[in-house]
Design brief:
11 strands; four-stranded antiparallel β-sheet
Length: about 130
Amino acid sequence: QVRLVESGGGLVQAGDSLRLSCAASRRTSNWYQLGWFRQAPGKEREFVAAITSSGSATFYTDSVKGRFTTTTDNAKNTLYLQMNSLRPEDTADYYCAARIPNSRDGYDRRPDRYQYWGQGTQVTVSS
């Protein structure tokens, strides 16, 4: 089992940057595949980014490619989401999540495949 705690959200203007953090209660490298999701008011939770448990690959939804980057600091058991060139449509509650993968290089975009979730952090981008 792993507990996840996000931080770093806030209110920013379009074009600004934010870095979200997700602190895990235990080592995730080689054990859990990690992902970022977001949920805007009235919308379903959607995939944003993921990193494999091996850390060898990252994946992004099309709307954030080239703007968002997810990384891990294994020494700190922390996952990050660097968000640049933020847009009003990026406004949402952001969640990190972890799942026990079938392979070290696999990932999943479906929220219901993740067993562990953080409490979320709110990101608001004004125009």
